[in-house]
Amino acid sequence: MCVEPGDAAAREAAAPRPAEGPAVDPITVPPVDEVAVTTLIDNTFDALLGSRDGVERPPLGIGSVEAPLFEGGRTSAGLRAEHGFSALVTVRRGDTTSTLLFDTGSSPDGMATNVERLGIDVGDLHGVVLSHGHFDHSGGFSGLARLRGRRGLPLTVHPNVWSRRRIAPPGANPVELPTLSAGALRREGFDVIERREPSLLVDGAILITGEVDRVTEFERGMPPPHQAWDGSAWRHDPTVIDDQALVVNVRGRGLVLVTGCGHAGIVNIARHAMRLTGIDRVDALIGGFHLSGAAFEPIIPPTVEALTALAPSLLVPGHCTGWRAQQALAGTLPDAWVQSSSGTTYRLRSAA
């Protein structure tokens, strides 16, 4: 039997709460029988990709829309792709399932459009988590509010998601990035909960890492043009300290990690998740690895080397990973690497 998100017990179970013990001690994350991660928004959509065991692609012809110049007045528009990321994460333990939304994409309507075309009922959501405050992960809240109405929904964020940020390239005019409004979110019915520390959601089945320890020598964060307003001046913001990831423990398989951009460094994130949980096996990594562009391409080789040592069974780099890193990862880990595409569901079941 599924727990209805409107029930008081379900609301209480969905709300984040402090994980017991300090971060240096292992946090018990009970194993689940299955996790399904559906990419609602990514930078690409490829309608011709085929499904395989554990990877479910949307059917060819999805996204029927009005088109008066076609016979019958309709055509298949597929799914939206944009520079952004959003994923639906559903965990199952026995007969009970719980679903969280992780990030919301870039545009106000992109994620919502794909939700409708995929036939997903967002009324079943137990909560929303933001990986960090950049606009390409937080832009879709208005579309979500349109689909749900002003129904209360927990929203877990790091306190720094409200930071003003800009890109200031040398010799060019700075471009200030859109900043999320806490007040506007609350007016739309979102119950905003700020935490720097790890949180356990949906009755302890999902761990949100909170701030990630930076331990590798090569993952050094954003270059100098990425700046944040500190109240008196714009200063280099290398860490994007609000960056956090989602972690699920699948019985007999190990950890499944979902990242937004991975600004903390995908290797740092994986090692942090293992340290937090005391589980030494990372079975899957899905999301943005932020290895695109001149500032990050030099760290592709050590990143690939470290991920090879982890030996995940599923590797789905998306969003800001970049084509050079995709090529390197696909060539080095061909059995694990899978091309990301909007609308794809990655399903990992218990191995025990």
Automatic annotation (TrEMBL):
Residue intervals of the Metallo-beta-lactamase domain: 90-148
InterPro entries: DHPS-like_MBL-fold (IPR041712), Metallo-B-lactamas (IPR001279), Metallo-beta-lactamase_dom (IPR052926), RibonucZ/Hydroxyglut_hydro (IPR036866)
Residue spans of biased composition, Low complexity class: 1-23
GO MF, any single term: transferase activity
Domain of life: Bacteria
Name of the molecule in the record: 7,8-dihydropterin-6-yl-methyl-4-(Beta-D-ribofuranosyl)aminobenzene 5'-phosphate synthase
PANTHER family linked to this entry: METALLO-BETA-LACTAMASE SUPERFAMILY PROTEIN, METALLO-BETA-LACTAMASE SUPERFAMILY PROTEIN (AFU_ORTHOLOGUE AFUA_3G07630)
Renumbered residue ranges of the record's region Disordered: 1-27
Gene3D superfamilies according to UniProt: Ribonuclease Z/Hydroxyacylglutathione hydrolase-like (3.60.15.10)
